[in-house]
Amino acid sequence: MNQTLNLLIGLAMGLNLLALGSGRLPSIIRTVAVQGMILGVLPLVMEPGFGWTVSAVAGVTVGVKGFVIPTLLRRAMRMANIEREVEPFIGFVPSLLLGALGTIGAVAAARALPLLPEHARTLVVPGALASIFTGFVLLVGRAKAISQVCGFLVMENGIYLFGLLLIHSTPLLVESGILLDVTVAVFVIGIIVDRIQRAFDSLDTRKLTVLHE
Amino acid sequence: MIAILPFALRLACWLLLAPLLPGIINRVKAWVAGRRGPPVLQLYYDLARLWQKSVVLSVLASPAFVAGPAVAWVALVAAAMLVPLGPAAGFPSFQGDVLLLVYLLALARFCIAWAALETGSAFEGMGAAREVSYAVLTEAALMTAILSLSVQTGSVTLNTMLAHSSGPGALLLAAGLFSVLLAENCRVPFDDPNTHLELTMIHEAMVLDHSGPPLAVVLHGAALKLLLFAVLLSEAVLPMGRLAPLAATAVLAAAVALVTVGVGLVESLLARFAFRRVPLLLTTAFLFCLFALLLAWKGGAP
């Protein structure tokens, strides 16, 4: 069980780096969607038996993160009619190296944490820390609003992964509430992106620092 | 006498089989494109033809123009002899010969770049500058890969390092080493070996002014390097030491053929990357090798 779990989280960590290295918005969106789906399947792997709650959480997460959110983002991109190139503040190579450093740091930091013995041998905590860090780098290091949304989603994936440690003690309501929040946030951002595009003729967030009238 | 015979056999194997690889790659490319393509043995004919031609020497060039390719070829042959060939262990084998391998490859590159600069032409200088600046990144990846193999097996001798499989990181290592192979041999995502536009070439731009036997030596050396990297990749990933001698030979041959066909497929299906994207790809290769190293260091589950 731990082998499959570690393999999936390792894949998600690889996708973190892929998101940092890709230069086109659609490929970042796709990467984040695949990562969301991989993390969505995790509860099924972590639980030995079949449970309705866990299956519902997994199914809804895969559906929302893998299909609903990417569709919303793609629609926002199409409506705002923006170019597909990502404009990085932090170049691709430095951000990749930063991400790798963060991943290694996350593995090292997770060793230092006093974890429960059943969690100590899995990659859950390092994966969560690495995703949060990657999301942070994406948020800070990219100029376009859509890629910043992707950074936010990667960060949320990391927090979700952390939350999986408590899957027995958190009620279903909390999980679905978080998912709903994220979906609404992406929905709202989709509308905002359109408004920004109309007002400024660009999605470059650097222009939002200057006030008009 | 007994020691000399396997040595000579291995040497012959390296020298005679190397020009086959570019032929196979070209055949695969032709097959994917739906053409008939050149014969598989085309490079042998080219080498024979070039060997009989005379050399055109620039008045600017010093003797290093001819000596460079020769020294590079000898260095590549020496590097190849260090690498075990399936069941036949590398013969000059000692503690730390893997470092010698890295240095011999670097020496070969230095000599070719030096000979390129000797022509005094701007194109050769440009090609040499590109070659060595990419080499900075590929060498980092190659050394990380070697480090991960050495941590995995606890040895710095090529014969022992390549005998075992590289453990849980084998897939990562394979991806990293394959990118290194493509970059070191100037294959497609990094450089187009077919292009004749001086502004975009790397390796070909360096050897534009070479002719006759020196060019033949450069071409044969390039083929040898390709075979060397293909063997290195196959043996790093596959557990060669656990197989019977005959099976090991067959597996190695199959793996090298697979790598060669893979290079051909990559070359047919991918376009050359823009120069500014290349460092990103090489950094990715480095990271693959780095994570393989971490896996080897910390064991399967951290």
What does this structure look like?
The complex is a heterodimer of chains A (213) and B (302). Chain A is mostly helical and 213 residues long. Chain A has helices spanning 2-21, 25-46, 52-80, 92-112, 117-120, 124-141, 145-163, 172-200. Chain A is globular. In chain B, helix 10 crosses helix 11 (245-269). Chain B has helices spanning 4-17, 20-33, 42-52, 64-82, 97-118, 122-153, 158-161, 170-184, 203-206, 212-237, 245-269, 278-298. Chain B has 302 residues and is mostly helical. Chain B is globular. Chain B contains twelve helices and no strands. At the A-B interface, helix 1 and helix 4 of A face helix 12 of B.
Secondary structure topology:
The complex is a heterodimer of chains A (213) and B (302).
Chain A: H1 2-21, H2 25-46, H3 52-80, H4 92-112, H5 117-120, H6 124-141, H7 145-163, H8 172-200
Helix pairs in contact in A: 1-2, 1-4, 1-6, 2-3, 2-7, 3-8, 4-6, 6-7, 7-8
Chain B: H1 4-17, H2 20-33, H3 42-52, H4 64-82, H5 97-118, H6 122-153, H7 158-161, H8 170-184, H9 203-206, H10 212-237, H11 245-269, H12 278-298
